[in-house]
Give the backbone structure.
Amino acid sequence: MAHRWKNNLSADDVTSEALFWNRRKILAGLAGSGLAAATGQSVQAAEGEALTSNTWEDVTSYCNFYEFGTGKSDPSLFARKMTTSPWSVEIDGLVERPGAYSFDDIMSEMTIEERIYRFRCVEAWSMVVPWNGFELADLLNLAGVQDGAKYVSFETLYRPNEMPGTVYPVLDWPYREGLRLDEAMHPLTMMATGIFGKPLPNQNGAPLRLVVPWKYGFKSIKSIVKITLTDTQPETSWNMANAREYGFYSNVNPNVDHPRWSQASERVLGGGLFAKRQDTLMFNGYEEEVAHLYDGMDLAKFN
Ligand SMILES: Nc1nc2c(c(=O)[nH]1)N[C@H]1C(S)=C(S)[C@@H](COP(=O)(O)O)O[C@H]1N2
Ligand SMILES: [Mo]
């Protein structure tokens, strides 16, 4: 389902013009393959915002995927070990049709579209990413959400022999995340299967990962193998590790600082020596679309 967003960024915000045209070629090259749908619906609407470009290199070489190590380049070096085919996602809990959904079956049911979103890590760096994927709501509807469901929890693959970082107890593996059901069903919330028109590289969470653009990056859990609909707020890895620093909600908010650093501004990835800082936007720029989800909630308390 294609939606148009006022806040959507244009392709020029993502990358240089040269790479943009290169990307068009990449997309054209996919015609006829299963991924041709990626060229189908695009939800770009220029807003005229001048954001620094991010390239394929920026997005795929500077990553957080602690199962492969805590260094920013560890995922790009070690995630190739991860076997992503065959892949299936167990969907269970309060759903009508629980079971193992194979990645191929999911792809055959979903319409892949492009969404250009801002991405803001809790560590105060940001980028702009052209994702390919589908709305999480469409997948949840495929499984059929039962009336009593209030939350959705997610789990990443945990396969120690392919994930060298899991020997360190940095987090309580498997990596777990969660959303309130209304956040999960919001049309901005997507399951990404690609970037720049290509299948998701392993380091970015192949074959499918969550993208919640108004929340800090750690909510966007990678390489998902399990989705559970529940009636209670699920445990989440970063919150379990340090509840004071990483709240369940973790909406991007320039007015609520991390206990150890300011969240008022962010370092824009890419640009090398010319890397710059910019002001962080409320809900990462998606306030108009999502602020209503939190009406009456104290955002400093429910951080
Ligand atoms: N399974 C898993 N998912 C994860 C992480 C992780 O360590 N493991 N890191 C999170 C963090 S902190 C961020 S900022 C984003 C980074 O996504 P990217 O590397 O594709 O930019 O992934 C999130 N999802
Ligand atoms: Mo992050």
